[in-house]
Structures are given as structure tokens and as C-alpha cells.
Structures
1.
Amino acid sequence: MLKHFILGTAGHIDHGKTSLIKALTGTDTDRLKEEKDRGITIELGFAYLDLPCGQRVGIVDVPGHERFIKNMVAGATGIDIVAMIIAADEGIMPQTKEHLDICRLLNIQYGFIVLTKIDMVEEDWLDMVIEDIQNQMIGTFLEQEPILPVSSVTGKGIPQIVNYLNDLIQRIPLQSKPGIFRIPIDRIFSMKGFGTVITGSINAGEVQIGDTIMIYPRKIQAKVRGLQVHNQSIEKASDGMRTAINLQGIEKEKIQRGDIVAYPDTLMPSYMIDVHFHYLSSNSKSIKNRTQIRFHSGTSELLGYLYLLNEEELKPGEIAFAQIRVQQPVSLVKDDRYVVRSYSPIRTIGGGVVLQPIPVKHKRFKQDIIDGLHCIHKGNIEDIIVYHLNASDYHGIRYNQLLLMTNCSEKRLDGELHKLLSIKKILLVDKENRLYLHADQMDQLMQKALTFISDYHQKNQQKIGMPKEELKSKLPNKLNIKIFNLMIHQLDKTNRIVSERDTVRLFSHKPSLRKEQDDIKDMIIQLYGKTGLTPPTLKEVMDRFQMTKATIKDTLMYLVEQGELIKVKDDLFFDARVIHQLKQNLYDYLKKNNDINTMDFKQMTGVSRKFSIPLLEYFDSIRLTIRVGDSRKLLFIDDK
């Protein structure tokens, strides 16, 4: 398998980054007229270099001017190796240091130092500059890396750079980056006959021609029409490749630098990000809570505010957990690196790693929040999954959210979830949408439900059970119906409740009537027994006994539970013995005659449509009969 590497330049303005790339590759990465006129790099430039080992390395040329640091950060995203460019005639300058800080914050681990313009200085001056560079690189990731002197004018030192790079990339371990396919967009343009083209470096995953992708955070869909890597058309591109994608079905004006290419429904835009924040020791004063900042991630720059979660301020060199709230949505993944620059004057002040890309708004000085962020920062994947599911309360977390929160491969996440499911630490509550819930949260939810049902019984002793809708309304707001139904099923299966069609009751609950209801229950039974298939209406019963609708209806439902009455429809009850006899008569009739229409049923019962139609519908509901056209047939025939 070929390795795919991207080399990025960094360094102060006019230190020879673009000239070095031209000497290495023959490509002038300053393509804009303004860049030619002013003699400085403004926008990102791109080239590639073929090495003796057969490896082709993508190269990103970044601006050195302080006004274009945001473009430098965009270019540094996704690079594997940095060439820190320092001019021999000037040595280390302000943007040299700032670019070095940015590389460290972005966790770039490989690089080397190129000392340019050696043809412009004397040998003793060169020795002094090299010694100064070595001293200033102490404690950085470039401390042990070589300093390669070069002249882009004479070509001296160019072969040494090629040879060192050729050796370096063979020493870097081959590792496929886990996680969700993403490309932070750094260029957008149109090509005649092709349409919209975007470019960027693939963070993880792969993409191929014909795929449907989505542009985040605005969630605009498009189709991959073509792919190029280093000006060569390919069918598939994967992590580490600097890639150009020809998009079908989207206009150039709808995309901007900083947007992310990913697959549909894999990312989630958010206005908040939980982070581990390193405030650089090079800062001259402390930073206070709720400081306005410039937030750089991927190729985007957004204005926002830094909220320190456990401190009022940070001193230079200190680290902390923080929540960054931005003015426009951003689509990130756990472990993404970011850079923070001050609002004004603009300079790099810190950065770090994303911990939670889709958090809720936190209150400050909450120890459980800090403990949770410690877990996300240092814990293993199992710890992180369990923490997030526990923190989600009763709402659960979907599989695609867990991918964002863990930044691991689907295979590894599937394995961790299977392990947790097998030991019953978590529950899969919705197979279709892959919604997971912590088992402890389900236990707490069930305990709440039992308490609400018990309270209901105490206040409504005469009622058979609590309406399910009323129970759901008392549980946490916007509770997923699948979680609610699973909770009811678990309680019913373990004989803690009895679940019926619309109601639930404690397994031990026995309805009991109030005295005034107990006094009339026998009279109600006699009334319905005498009236047979033409029972009184609910209002007639209320008028007869001079009681409220609620009192009478609760009494009737109690008698239904006791088996004395049968509820055929709302407010229509029959004596149970009468219905059982009618059921047998109807069964015998249908076995003999095959079917029965409404008129025949009226003649059988001797009642009007007011009662015959509800009775027919009742027998349909208990699955004795089935309606076929204008007639009823037996649903099942039992010859025993």
C-alpha cells in the first residue's frame, strides 16, 4: 500500500518558501496576479514532488505575512510533515515563531528546518544563525530535526532536501486514519465543461466517483462527478491524499472555504464545542473567561467566545477545559485540532483538541462536567461511550452521534457496543435508528414510572389503571416513544406492572370503590342485566343515580375489571353475560350460514342500528369476526 503524505511550508514572509518549492518541483505556487505584483504569497499554493523511492508528495505553500495567518492555518490543516523555512540573512522572525506555535497546536509531529538564502551571507554569520535556531528549537518537535542549508538561486542543498525527505517518509509508520470521511475545503473554483471543483486534504476515510456527498454545515447534497490527485484522474481517493473533487448538482457560490465535504448524515453542525485548551506561554498576560476569540478549525475561521469551565482566568502556559461558542455552526469530530487567535490585535494565543463536538451548554464550576471532560480526554473508548450514554439522561444517543463522539472506526465502535450490550451495561432501544441507552438510566426511568403509577393509584383507588399517555406526560420531556415502550415492556415482563391496551397498573393493584360507588354497584349490575342488548346511556345512568360522570364512569370501569360489564365503545357498556351469550349465538349462526349482514344481525338481536353497529364492530375488535364488504365472516373456525 502506498503512503500518502502532504508536506507543508511554514515561516516568516519573504524567507523563500515559494522559491524553495519552485526549486524543488519547478512549479510556481504564486498563481494570483496580486501575488506576482507584490512578490508575496497571499493564498494557498499547491505542487507535488516525485521522490527517488517512487513516492509522490503533495506540497502546500502557505503565506508568511501576518495578515494572512488565517490562510496559513487553513493550509496547515491535514499536513503530515512541515518544512520550517528560515532565511539565513534574517534568522528567526515573529511569524517563524507563530507558525511554529500553530504547528505544535495542530499536533504536527514530523518536520525539518530549511535554512534558505545561504548565498546571501558569510560562513561565520551562517554558523551563528544555525546556533541561534538550535537554541530556539529546544523543547519543540523540531528540536532533534536537521537544519538543511539551501540556496534556491544556485540550487545548492536542494538534493540534500530531496534525499532527507525521501528517507523521512519511509520512516513514518503507515497508519490509516480512523473515523468519518471528511475533506475541509480550501479552494473552490469552476472549470468550463466540468462545473464546480473543490480541493482539500482527506482527513479520514475514502470517496469514489458516483458517491453522494454533503457539504457541511449547511447540509447541501451533491454528487462526485470526478476525482483528481496530483493532476491525475482516479476512481477512488483515501485518507492522506490531497484531492480535487468535481461536484455535480451544486453551484460554486453555495460553497466557501471552511466548509466540510462528508457523507450525508455523518456530521452534526453545532454552535458549541467542548475543548482541552492550551494557553501559550508566549502570551504576555492572562486570558479571562468569556474572551472574544477567532476560532480556527480545519480550513474555517469563526468568531466566538471562550468560556473557561473551572477558572476565572488562565495564566500564560496553563491548560484548562473550556467550551467555545461560535457565531456560526461548525461540524467537527472528537480529536480534531484547533487554533485560537485573539480578536484584536490578531495573533495566535492557544489551541488544542476537540473533546465533544456536539455538547449542550454547560454551567461553569460543575465538578461532574469537569470529571466528564477528564474522562473524554484521557479515557479509553469504552469509558467515553459509557460516559456519554450516562450523560444523555433518558434520551439515549444514536450510533452516528457516537461516531462523532469517539472518532473511531465503525468496526471498533461496533465491537465496543456489542461488548457493552452483552454485559447489559447499555441497551439498544431502537434497532432501526440504532439508538442506545445506558442501563442505569433505564433503571432510573422505570423507578420514576413506578412512583408515578403508585401515586396515581393512591389518588384513584377505584380506577383500574393509569392512562399510558398520562404517564408519558409526567416523564422527562420529549422522551423517545421507543424508550417509553421498552420501559413498559421491561416492567410488564418482570411483573412489576400490568400493561393493557391504554393503561398500566401496578401488579399488586386492586381497584376499590368509594362508599357511594360501592352502594350503587349492585344496582348498576341489575340495571344492565335487565336492559340486555339495549343498555342505558351513560347520561341515563348518571341521571338515575344522581352522580357525576367521572364517578359513574369509574364505577362502570371497575365493573368491567371485575368481569360484570363489557365496554363495547366509549360510554356504551353491556352486561357481560348478555354479550357472552350473543357471542355464542353469532358463532353458531356463522358456522351454519357462513356470513351475516347488518340487517340479519339486527333481526337476530332485535335491536336498532344504535346498538347493532357497535356490537358488530366489537366482535370485529375481539377477532371473532372480520368484515368482508357489507357482511361479516368468522375470522377463525374452531371445530372442537
Note: The chain has 19 helices and 35 strands.
2.
Amino acid sequence: MPVKKSELYSSIWKSCDELRGGMDASQYKDYVLVLLFVKYVTDKYANKEDALIEVPEGGSFNDLIKLKGKPDIGEGIDKVIAKLAEANELRKVIDVAYFNDNEKFGSGKEMQDRLSKLIAIFENSELDFSKNRVEGDDLLGDAYEYLMRNFATESGKSKGQFYTPAEVSRVMAKVIGINKAKNQDWTVYDPTCGSGSLLLKAADETEHGITIYGQEKDVATRALAKMNMILHNNPTAEIWRDNTITAPHWKNNDGTLKTFDFVVANPPFSDKSWSNGIDPKNDEFGRFEGFGIPPEKNGDYAFLLHMIKSLKSTGKAAVILPHGVLFRGNAEAEIRKNIINRGYIKGIVGLPANLFYGTGIPACIIVIDKENAENRKGIFMIDASKEFIKDGNKNRLRERDIHKIVDVFNKQLEMPKYSRMVSIEEISEEINDYNLNIPRYIDSQEEEDIQDIEAHLKGGIPNKNISELDHYWKIYPNLKSVLFKAGDRKGYSILNVKTQKIKNTIYEDSEFISYSKKIEDIFNEWMKRNILILKSISEASKPKEIIKNISDDILGTFSKLELLDNYDIYQRLMVYWSESMQDDLYFIITNGWKIDFNIEKKKKKEIWDCDLIPKSIVLEKHFLPEQKILDNYKNNLEEIIEQKVTLEEENSGEEDLFSEVRSSSGNITKGELLKRIKEIKHTSGFEDETKILQEYLKLVENESDIKSKINKSESNLDKKLYYKYKTLMEEEIKDLVIKDKWMISLYSFIMSEIERISQKLTGRIIELAERYDIPLPKLIREVDELGKKVDTHLEKMGFKW
């Protein structure tokens, strides 16, 4: 089977990173990504008429391959890239980094070897776009994004700001409704576009395409963005190099700022030099008129006001800014007040800390919407700061977090401790004074688990604590009365079962069993619908479209259930997709519903397996009796080995009965056993040793016999299994992959969610039971009684206090 897409990118990164030497990741990326770009345009456009990119003679990846091992390889690479740049007006885009650099790659043989190996990485046959038949799959574009993310991670603070995490970019694109763009004439703009990842994620959300504009002041980063656009099939995107605040490029004929349908941006946080080169009081574009001038040493609002000015009257924007913009005072407070009073802010999403490369501070997404702004009565706020997963030294939004933010924001759903619509009236109250700090309006803190003093003194479990589990009692109403009964005091109950039986009581309860069956039935309904979709996968299918459809369906299917969080179920599916299912899908779309074996030689023996349908699935489906016989043999072998170990341990003390039969390596061989038994068999005083050695010999013979049976059974079963794979028909393959692999895996994930929430209930009840099990007075009496017993024993021993 071909290399998995998920493994391909990581292997490229590992190979590139090994060749980096002492070069900083922020520099090295410029070399690696240029080579990937040359590879891409060669695969896609070489020898094609009317191609968007011309691949000239002497300017292709094939010309780079010819340079491998040559003494002048550095100079040669620069010449090849220069030819490609010259032919496509890509000067100062793909030729900003020089390969013939002794300081970067060493000199002589060292440079020759490092650059040759670097080129060889991208010769990987699996990284061939010309053979990539999966529609809508940006194989090299995705590889470029993967490498950029890793370079951003490695680059450290102040050097990783060229990349906005894809997860955040997707949220921003979805909350501004860019999917409503009706045709290519609609526009999206990023005034600080970095490597362009945010613009591309926004464009991905559109069905009919969109015209892309960007500006970036850093030369090398602008080059990354331009290459990124071409790699992701947006070669006409306009990316300009200059400072957006001091020299905005996109203007109308009359010199005013060009306006756009959508704006997305992740500007540099709190830029201290934003005003260098302009007079903010006399800004020729009027960006600060009616709002106020941002502080000289903090440019957050300068960028925000530039974006507001760059929006059409119905335009929408999403910008990432540090939380400080929500509450800082003085000049910023006045600007914030003026923006709020114009109704421009539609919503704010508070994000987790440590998401971004280059900074660990928490940030927020401010959503601007000029359409109908004058009638806006409130700002919709979301506190998503606590929902993320750790990923190395950074935090990352999960698929469930992305979907939840977008759903809640776009549907304006109010959820306790997560989201609410805050009226402008409340925001403008004297106590708040236009402060937008999210904790003022959403209390996302977990309630403290307060101890009940009376229960500690007098016993019983507080009914208040039991009522906190009402979301369980709605599903299991009778279970509550099974577990608890009224105590002798009002407001307190006592446990109706022994603590050690709580778990079994819950799991054996008819309501619990009924709820589990309901979940199973709901999953089966979803499964039946989606099996039909998955069985229709063909060469024309689009993997990303398929996973979107089936994942949205599972989210909706489980949306009305109590206890189970449908976003947790959705996350389970998306994790399985990324870890296994997407590789299967890409293989099927590329190769059809066919079997492909992995074969490797081990000790002159061919070992085979199949990634698409692992052996375990076919064994369970078609060879269960044979597998059971084999498993029994293996269990017998384990028993024999345990008996041997026990016999050795019992007779290997000071007088080691096995010392005479051990080889120099410590092993006990059959030959040595037979030899020793023959020596002592008829010798007086050695009867016990003879008996033990004969017993051990019998175990050795049995072990040899059972191993022979195992080898024979495994060989026969392997032949049957291989023949079965070879004779599988397409419909059988579909059933094995979809039903016995994908659906069974997903079913087990969902059942584990039920297990998790049930364990949570069990754990909480046990915690309450143990917390209030022994009242304090009883503990004091027990301590007192034990103390008296100790005193009595001490007196008997002659000690007296």
C-alpha cells in the first residue's frame, strides 16, 4: 500500500529537520518551502499548454534532480529557481533565499551532500502531484501547510508569527459567513496576511470562489504567501509587499481605501512602532476620524480601524487581537466606545491562551459586521477559553471546539457559562462603562464543591449534592430511589446500597440498560444512512466533502440526547478520521475498492498485512474456529512456560538443581537435561533431582510440540487468509471496510462515551458516600477509644503518662 497521507507529511518534516544543521527554523523554511513549490509547479504545469505557470527549460524540479552530487549544486539550484522566477514574474518571491550560501549549508562536500539529500526528499514517488487523482485534494498544498506549522512551532517567539493556526482560521472564516459569497467577484482581504494561511482558509469556505487580496510587510513572508496561493490553486491572488498602516496598497482611483466584502486578519499584537512614518492626526485615509487616535506605542486599534475602513457598507470582518483591546482604558476606551455605539461589533469569541505562534497570551476574535449596524442592540459573546487540547508546547482547538464555536455563534445560542447575548444597554451602564472583558458578562468558573459541615457532624448526604446530578435523574428517575433513601433529618439522605455495590447497581439498572440501547438504536439509524453514502465512494468522490457530510449528520443525530454531548461524539469521529479513516478513503478513491498488501521480509520469510482491511477483521469474520484453536495452543504454551519458570524458581536457591544443565548463556537445553538425567538416574541420593529434571524435560518436550503445532496452524491459517483476501469481491471488501472496520470502531467509541459518563456518576456518588460516611463525633469517639487502648497497653509495659 502507498505511504499514508498522514505519515507522508511527518516523514518529510523529519527528513528536512535532520538536514537543518545549526540553521534557525525561521530561516530554513525559506529553502524547504521553495523546493516544495518548484516540485509542485513542475508536477502540475510542466509540458502543458496554456498553463497558469510556465515551467521553462532549465527551470524545473527535474533540473534540480540533475544537480544532485555535483560540486556546484548550490549555484545550480539558484540558477534553476531564477529561471522559473523570471518566466512567471516571481522575482523576489521564490528567489529570496540563496542556496549557494556557505554559512547556511557549509562548503564543499558538506554543501554538496546536504543539498543533494534535501532535493532527494521531494523526489518521493508518493509526493507526485501529477499522479494525484483525488479531486479536491491539495496534496502538496497540504504538505506546505504542514511544514509551515512545524516551522512556526520551531521558530520560537517573535519568529513564528507568519502562520495563523488553521483551526482558528477556520473559525474566523465561518463566523463571518464567507460561504455566502455568490461568485468570484466577491472579495476577501487580509492587511497583515503573513504566509496567507488565513486567507486560504477563508477562500476554502466559498463554493464559487472569491477574489483574494493581501498585504504583508516582510519580504520573505510575502514570498511564502505568494507561493502558498499558487500551491493551493489560487495563482491570481494579489499579495502586495509593504506596510499596511503607513502605505496601504489597495486603493481606489481617487486615492481612498479600497473596500472589500470580507476582511480577516491576525495583525501583530500591540505593535509599538505602528505610527512610524505617518501622522495619525492627519491620516489621509481618515481611518481614525470619529473614533480617536490609538496610543502611540500600541497599534491594536490602528489595525482594527484600518479594517473597519476597508469594509464595504455590508462588509464583515474577523480579527484576532489580544484581550487587552476589550478593557484597556484612556484613548483605547474612547475608541472602543465609539465602535460599540456605531453597532459595528457583532460578537467576540474569547480563545484559549497559548494558541498562537510567537506569543502565549490569550487572544480573542472580534467579529465586525457593518450590515444593519445602526440597529444592533447587543454583542454576542462566547467564552471558549477552557476548551482545547494540549499539543506539544502549544494549545490547539479540537474539531469539536471549532464546530461548537461556529454553531453557537452563527445560531446565537445562549449556553450557561459559555455564551450569551449582551445588550449594548448593559455594556454602557456606569458599572461596565463600555468594558468588553468577557468575564464581566459570562461566569465560566466551575462551581466550588463546598463541604457540608452539618453532614460531617451528623451524617447523611446533602440533598443539594444529589440534586446537582439531576441531569442523570432525568434519564434514570427510578435509579435515584434505588441508590438513596430519606435520612432522619430534612434535607439529607442516606445511601441505600453498600458503597462497593454502587457501580454494579448503576450498570445493572433497567433504566441504564434501556438508555444504552437507545444510544445503540440511534447509532444504527445513523449507520444505515451513511453506509449507503460510503459504499458509493468512487474516483470522483471528494474526501473532505464526505467527512463533512457524515460528521454533520452524526452531530445532528445525537444533538437532542441528554447526558451525551453530541460534540464529544463528533470529536470521536473526527479523531478516527484523522488517524485512520481518511487514509483509507484516499486509498479507495485513488485505487478503487481493491486490496493492496504490505509485504516485508523477515529472516528470509515474507510477512504480509493489509492496511485497508487488517487481518484481525477477516479472521474474526471468516476463520473464527481456526483462530480459536490457535489461541488455545498459545494459551497452552503460556501455561507451560509459567510451569517452567515456577519449577526453576522453586529449585534454584543455594542448591541450584539446574546449575549442571545451564548453558553459558543461562539457557536450559534438552540435550543437557538428557545428559544429566542419564548421569544421576541410578545414583543413590539423586532421586529428587532426577524427578524434577524429568518433570522439566517433559515440559520442554511439550513446549516443543506445542510450538510446532502453533507454527503449523499459523502457516495453514495464513495461507487460507491470503487466499481469502485474493478472492474477495468488491461488495465483500466494501462490507469489511465500512461495516466491520469503520462502523465497529465508531460504535465502540460511542459506547465508551456512555461508559465515561456512567463512571462519572459512579465516581461522584462514591465520593459523596465516603465523604460523609463517618460523622465527626463518631470519629472523635473512635479516636478516644483507640487512645485509651494505647494508654492501657503502655501502662502494662511500665509506661505511664
Note: The chain is about 50% helix and 10% strand.
3.
Amino acid sequence: MRFSYNIYAFQWSFPEIVADQVGLFRQEGLNLKFSSFIAKKNVRKNVTYNSLMRSGGSDIYHAGEWACIIRVSQNPDTRIVAASRPGNGTLNSTFSIYVRPDSKLERPEMLANKRIAVEEDTGSYFTVVQDMKRFVQKDQIKLVQVGSPHMRLVSLLNGEVEAASLIHPWTELANEMGLVELVRTDRRNPTLAVANLRVNITELRSFFRAVNHAIELLNDPNEDITESYANLFLRICEELPQTCKDAAPKVARKLKPPKWQPWQPYTSDEFRRAITLLEDLSVAPNEVTFKYLVHPQIDEIFKL
């Protein structure tokens, strides 16, 4: 079984990174080939992950609920196999929209028709839409494709956009640099895991047992786990402008990994809520049902 994660989105795969570092996959008897890659700047994430799955570069990944529904509809050899829901301090609860310190945009309503940096085909795109609909009309939400969170931060600092969707740990860096959080997410939908159908139930069960054990560890992290997370953050910061590099060490010294809710079965009620937003944006897959998208043995994965 293979798992490959995007270095620029390391925070999304940190439970797997921890599980690999402390040997939890081996303890479960799972021969997991672990690797990483650097996402190409101009390649859409739907293409990236479906290509990885088809080529055998990875057998499982996770992403925002809406993105996973679309991706699985485009790749009939994959299925949704699990959900990790938002909670207090969880990664999928840390989305925020930031503006520059000198911005005259002081209220969320003032973002109407202003350029907001996002990454298409990912949770940031759909989360911004969901959050901004609380304040402005749908046709007043102006999203600009920029890329990964660190790139969105740089785009905002350079004045290329008026606002940017950021997530932990880039929100911490933005706070340290004096940027202003204008909208904090109201996201209530889960992150989903998607696997190739060729992966058997025994492997999936072992994978999620190991990762859920890792989640227990990182929800109360020791010094080694905290240092590992900070080092991954600092490695990306080396590619950023000097003002970001200057602020990064102070952020890293007090940085802790975000929490996660354990992986559990995805439900049909959650699917119906997600489809409502996709239909509103006219991007819902045609004639795709919960039964089609979700692994037929999803409940069996989480049985002891």
C-alpha cells in the first residue's frame, strides 16, 4: 500500500507522518510505502491526485469533502472511505480570511467584489464560498486561483489580492506579521479520505487504526512531535520572502500541531449537505449518489 503527501500541504498529512515516524503502520502489520511530492504550481489538484491514484503513486489521500466528492466522481476506481470532522482546534476548523495591516477592509461585508486568494479544487475554495455567503451575495464573491497557503500569503503581502484564505500554520505566521483576520471559518463539514478500490478492507482497517492512534498522540503532542511539525513549517518558510523568514522562527518556537478528530465512517446526511453547496455553485457531479461514491464496506473498516 502506498501513501504520498504534498510537502506544501504537510499539515493535512501530519497524522500519517507521525504514524510513520513512530512505527505505527509496522505495528499494525501494514507494509506502507511512504513518500512525498511537491505539487506543481499550475496543475489543478483534481488532476494531481487522480493521476497519483491511477499511476499507483498513492493508494489513499484526504482532502476537503466537496473536493473529494468531485474527484471520486471523476475516477471510478476510487471511493470515499472515511471522514474526520471539525472540532475545537482541529485543522479543518482553522480556515480564516486575512487582509493586510494597512487594508481599509474592516468588515467581512467589505470583501464584496474584492479578490480573495484561494486554491481551486481544494477545501480553501469551497470553504471561502461557504463562509462568505454569510456576508455577501454569491455573485459578489471574487475568488482568485493562487495555490498553496504559503503562496496565498505571499500574494496578499505583494498586493496581488485584497484578501487570502489561510490555514494553520500560515495563520500563525500571518498573525505574527500583523495581518488582520477578517473572517474566521464557520465550516462544519468533514475532511474525507479517498482510497483505491484495489486496497483491501484489512489494509484499510490497519491504516486507519494506525492513523487514529497517531491522532491520539498529536492531540497531546510530545516534544518530538511538536519539533517535527515546526521543522516541516520552517522548511517551506525558506522559500518565502525575507519578511516571512524573519518572523518564522518566533512562530516555530511556539507552534503546536492542530488537533484532529478520529477517522470514522462518512454518512449520507453529510453527503446531502455537501451536495447542496455544490449544486448551488453548479459544480455538482451529474447523477452521482452516496451509494456510488462511498466504499460499500465503509462500516467494516472501523470494526475492531
Note: DSSP finds 13 helices and ten strands in the chain.
4.
Amino acid sequence: MESLAENCLPITGSDLSGVDDLDKPLTTVDRVRWFDVMSAYNAAAKEAKEKGAEKAANAYRSVAILCSFHTHFDNAYEPYTAAVIMNGRRSLVPGDLSNADLDSVAALRLKTKEPLLRARVGDILWVRRHDHIAAKEASADYIVAAKALLNKGNQILAVDLFRRALQLGHWLGRENDAWHDAEAATLGALKNLPVTGERSLAVHFLDILVQMNAGDAAELAAIARQYAEKALGDKQPSRARDYRLHEAALWHRAKDETNERVARLEAAKTYEIEAERWIEGEKPSYFAASGALTKGIEALRQAHGDPAHIEELRQRLMRYQRESMKEMKTFEQRIDISDAVRQAVERVTVPDFREALKLLAFSMPLVDPDTLRKTVLAEASEYVWQSIVDTSLIDESGRITKNIEPLEREQSKHEAGIESRMFRHASEIDWQIRVSAFIEPARRQIWSQHLPSEQEFDFLVVDNPFVPPGHEGIFRRGLYHGLQGDLLLSGHLLTPQIENSIRYILEQRGVDVSNLQSDLTQPVKVLGPLLDLPETKKLFGDAVLFELRGILIEKTGYSFRNRVAHGFVSERECYAPEGLNLWWLVLRLCYTPLILGQQANEEPQVRNADTR
């Protein structure tokens, strides 16, 4: 973590005379990533300092800081974010640079001949000072660097640089050379892709061209269709789906409704193909096939597919779900809290980002209400004072927010008392352990290992029955920032979405989620009444409902939704177990492939034998 001093760059306040080899550390970088560039300059700074070359060391360290900003080019309005966010603190961002620092950035730009580095420092000058000359030159430098990286096998960063070149060209005006050059370079790269191991490279180019509204829509749609057909021929339905969805977006831009609908239907059909591949594989998995078919049904609904075919798929889904139960196995996992962080990191350290996220979502169990009830009753029996003394919960201002009354003989009050103690136990013990022992260390590992872009969460939110149409971007951004560690933003984005998602799922199942008032208006049910509906319990199961109630609305739990809605949640709470558990639960709900048609307690069972 960098300390936020008045000046952030070590070179600030001194001239750069004598610093003549600013690009030398880049020669030690094999596969270029910004993290690698930062590390190379940090190593060069250390070496220079040991040799007594203080000015060179300061220059190298300054470049390392500028390269430490995490690129977030998915969001043109906030292209750089903190690389590390932890416990409410963060690493440096461009906004921390002082005016004197920015003068040093301008001087460093004149000292480098390396397009990649010159583009980065010029971009920072644009972000902070709206330096049009620096932006124009940065766009051109990004193009040169992107072409070089594309030919050297570093395709993903290359695509990111093309994206930023287009963004800078857009800000400078689409009538200017910067935009036309960036558009032509990106289109040329798409049409002349090198033969590489990155088989889905074209989809990344289509993605930025669609986002930036660049190129001829009909021409690009035809290219997307060709790639989709090739992917199907290569038996890669998920990749074909990506291309079909881009084709649909391009036909939409071209105002061709007929071709757009055809493309969306073809994209939906790829889920059916994917499901069949899971059944016919060497190790058939009805569980995975059910997940693919569930998303396929949702995609067909949104594309206004044939109702008869949708119903046929629903019947097939129910059959697959019954078969999937034979695949479920129970295993025990003993967790020693002193060793838990290492185990969590090892658990999610896999090369595939999607698999790592899935392991994060499902490697820890939900709280089992039945087991927790027995624990609470055992504690009440052992510690008699809990059964005879009132307990009051207070907020940060000392106001009483909830009274937990003694356990009484009257059955209704007795049950209410037990339930209150269950939510309190979960919030103070179970959910705290889950965050400390697993969620937080696993989150950090996945972020540092994969450094995903926001768009890489599309697979999780597009055609997801838990994500209502038009809300994909909100979920995508909330999940991305949560993984990054910005729980302040993710908590405020995702918390209100849960209620609407539950309402959407129930409506898709034909459940009336409104209330008819005496004035004949029909306001929709809010979260509490929604969770009380028997249909909600049937769809989600007791464990999910307990988590939703405890984290979101119960006063002896976190009451996070109510506290966010009324502005009571502090910044600290967003980064505390409250915010992390909320983000993790949404990730799990989005990842649950059978969120429709199968109760949550029919998932693979994981028992935590010892969490002390």
C-alpha cells in the first residue's frame, strides 16, 4: 500500500538530467503485463539504489507507481482503479497525484521511446489534466504497442490497448484522425488475426467494436456469424454463443430486427447443444447439463422462442434434474482456523478463472438452520441466564435496535426467541468464520492470480435466470468490484438487486407478487413478504432463505439491506463480514445453475465438521 503523501512520486521535486535509459527495465520483461512492467521497474529501482544511483532509482520507482494503477478500460469514465483494496484502504490511483507529480509525469513521457510506457504516462496526463496532445499521442502509441503485442502472443493486453485507443479517439472527437486511426487499426486487427492459441480472440475484438459503436454493423455481424458457425463446427457451443450474441447486438445497431431475432434464437440453441454434450461426454454430468438447459430456457424466453419447444425443454430439464441427484455426494471438511487461509488459497488456485469463481462460490456451505437451531438450544440449556435475561442490541449511536426476549414457554414467543438467537449466532460466529477462513483469502487469491476485466463476468450474468433482463450490467459491475475488493461499491450495487431478482423469478413461475390495495393500486411486495411466500421457500430452500433473511433484513443478523436503504451502513461495515458475505451470497446465487426448478438444499452437500 502506498501512503497518500502530498507528492506520490519519488522523482517529484528533482530534474531528470542524467536519467537517460528509462526504457531499460522493459528489456527484462518476457510476457508483458502491467504487473510485470511494475515489477521490472521496482527491481531496477532497487538495483540502482544499491549502486548509489539515487536519481535513477527514484525515476524507476516513479514509473513503477504509474504502472501499478489497475486498468479498468471496461469503464471509459474510470479507466484506472486501485490494484489493491483491503480493510477500507487502497493502493494509489491517478487522482492521488499532485500537480507537482503530474509535472514529473510529463517529463517522464519525454524520456521514454517505448510506445507502451509512453502511452500509459500520456493517458494519465489526459485523465488528470485533459491534455489533448498527450491523449492524441497516447492513442497512437497504444495502437503501435497493441500491434506489437498481438504479434508476440500477448493478445489479451493487445485487445485492451486497442480498446483504450478507441476510447481516447472518441473523447477527442470522432471527426478527428485519432478516432479514424484507432477504428481502422482495430478493424484491421480483427480481419487479419494471427494464428494463435487464443481461439476466442475475435470475440474480444467484436466486444470492443460493439461497445464503441465502431465499424459497419452489418459487415461485423457477418464476421461474427462466420466465427459462430466455425465454433459450432469445432464443437464449441459456448464460444459460438458469444459470437451469436455479438451478431445480435450488431444487427440491433443496424436496425435489422429479423436478423437480430434469428441470431438470438441461434445463441439460445447453443445451450441445448452444450447440455447434450455434457450427457454424451466421457464422464456424463446431468448436473452440468441441467445448468446449461436452465440458461437455455431463459434465453429462449427472452428471445420469444417457440413456447412448445420451451415446454419440451422444461420437461427434459426435470428429467435431467432427477438424474443429477445420483451424482451428489456427501463429504466432510474439517477446518482448522489456523490453517484455513492456506487451504482456501490452495482450493481456488486453478488456471481457469471461471472454475476458480465457482470454487469460491461453492466450496463453503451455507449455514444449516436445523443444525444452528440445535446449537442455540444447547447453548440456552448450558448457559441458563440466556433463557431468563433480556438482551438488547444497540447501534453505533447507542440506540436500542432490537430486544431479544427470554425464551418463554408460550410456543410462538419461544420460537421467535430461538430464531432471533439463531440469526445473532450466525452473524457473530458462523458468518465471521466463513469470511476470515475462506471468502476473503480466496477472493484475494483469485483477484491477484487472474486480474479479470469486468467483461469477463458476462458468462455469469447473461441469460442467467437470477438476473432480470436489463440488469446484467449492474450485477456484472457489482460482482467485479466485489472481487477486486471495492465492497463499498459492490454492496450498494448488489443489495437492492436481490429483492428484484426474487420478484422476477417468482413472476416467471406465475406467482402474483403484488398487493391489491383498497384504492385499487397494486404495489409489488417488498423483500420481507417475498421471502415469506411458500413459493419462495420451495424455489430456494431453507438454507438460502435463512442467509437472505439474516444478511439482509433481520435485526439480530446484519440487516444489511435495511441499513443500506436508509443510509445507516458505514464504510467500515461495507468492508467487514457484512459486505463480504452479501457479495459472496450473490455470487453463489448467480452461479447456482439450477436456481429454477431445484431447491437450494438439493445442491452437493458439504458438511463442515469443525469450525472452531
Note: Residues 331-610 form one domain.
